[in-house]
Amino acid sequence: MHNLLPDGFLWGASTSAHQTEGGNVNSDWWAMEHDSAGTGHIKEPSGDACDSYHRWREDMDLLAALGFTDYRFSIEWARIEPAPGEFSRAALDHYRRMADGARERGLRPMVTLHHFTAPQWFARRGGWSAPEAAGLFARYADAAAPVYAEGVEHVCTVNEPNMIATMASYLHLLTTGGPLPAAGLPEPDPAVTQVLIEAHRRAVEAVKSRASHVQTGWSVANQVYQPLPGSEEVTAAYSHPREDVFLQAAAGDDWLGVQSYTRTRIGPDGPIPAPEAAERTLTGWEYYPPALGEALRHTAAVAPGTPLIVTENGIATADDTRRIAYTTGALKGLAAAMADGIDVRGYFHWSALDNYEWGTYAPTFGLIHVDRRTFARTPKPSAAWLGAVGRTRTLPEDAA
């Protein structure tokens, strides 16, 4: 089984701008967080988050010292284009300094163009439901070229487009009073799905036209749909609009991001809850380390020939020993998939920091603890443990 990581293998941790930067006042999520009507799932606003807009150097210093060789972060569309067609030179310079700062510390930057948040003006136009959405996103991808044109080898266009399309359906059901599914996810809005696929393709063209060397892809949330006996056809029909159509859209891309945390079991009537006795994480998800290996295998089967990068994998827990145990199990699945010939080019843990988790700070995914009052960063034992893999380029023995 693969134990030694191949040369060039990406070994890093991930963050997103809105979840860590703080003060992202022009974004649609900031507006949602402060909407008195609300949608019920937002328990607290992001506020200052981790203040990483100012403290990114410290974040990168820690990751580099721990042994990581790569860092995935997103740039904020709402900061770069605060008004339609009005691009902030200062914001572009800021993210350019981040890309340069990563390289100076020995961290290869992976830049994500869109990680769930968009400018408020984009949302007011209808967001991803607007007919001009794909063109507007491609314009932004082109304008962001100063950030990625030099010294950046990987650009992720859109983070979890299947979750964006699902959220569109979820919000529609909330506002219309429609029934929410008892388990599992609503079916993604089919029109939004197609717009996102078009936006991805146009953004890839924009990036390639400005920096042909950049390897482009997008990342998909893999739910590891497991059919109960006799439910194989139901599972395939359930998975296709929620996941597989987004994987298939990656055909011809330089890479495809796999994001995996847990599994979803499917019975004859659709998703069923996790077993009563199952261990749960702070997000309520089933503790299921094999998910990563299964997600890699499913993705490789649906999108054959496209190299894979694990762009997110992790666990929300207050017990760091469970984080190490979970990640050990996940890496076992990664090693087995690679040993079976699946082309995996990298692994990014979610997340580098305890950060804002879309409505609450309660779920702690971070390798590094962040004090909410002082912003002091304290690496957890899991950070040193996982960073050592970057230094030795060797997966833990019990994961081999």
The CATH C-level name is Alpha Beta
Shape: globular
Low-confidence stretches: none
Sheet with the most strands, sense and barrel status: 8 strands, parallel, barrel
How is this structure best summarized?
With 400 residues, the chain is an alpha/beta fold. The chain contains 14 helices and 13 strands.
Description:
By secondary structure, the protein is of the alpha/beta class. The protein has a single domain, classed as TIM Barrel (Alpha-Beta Barrel), CATH 3.20.20. It is 41% helix and 16% strand. It is built from 14 helices and 13 strands. It has an 8-stranded parallel beta barrel, surrounded by 8 helices. The protein is globular, with a radius of gyration of 20 Å. The N and C termini lie close together (6 Å). The mean pLDDT is 95.
Record the SSE blueprint.
Blueprint: E1 10-14, H1 17-20, H2 28-33, H3 52-66, E2 70-74, H4 77-80, H5 89-104, E3 108-114, H6 120-124, H7 133-143, H8 145-148, E4 154-159, H9 161-176, H10 190-210, E5 215-222, E6 225-227, H11 232-248, E7 256-260, E8 264-267, E9 270-272, H12 291-302, E10 308-313, H13 320-339, E11 344-350, E12 368-370, E13 377-379, H14 381-392
Parallel strand pairs: 1-2, 1-11, 2-3, 3-4, 4-5, 5-7, 6-8, 7-10, 10-11
Antiparallel strand pairs: 8-9, 12-13
Helix pairs in contact: 7-10, 9-10, 9-11, 12-13, 13-14
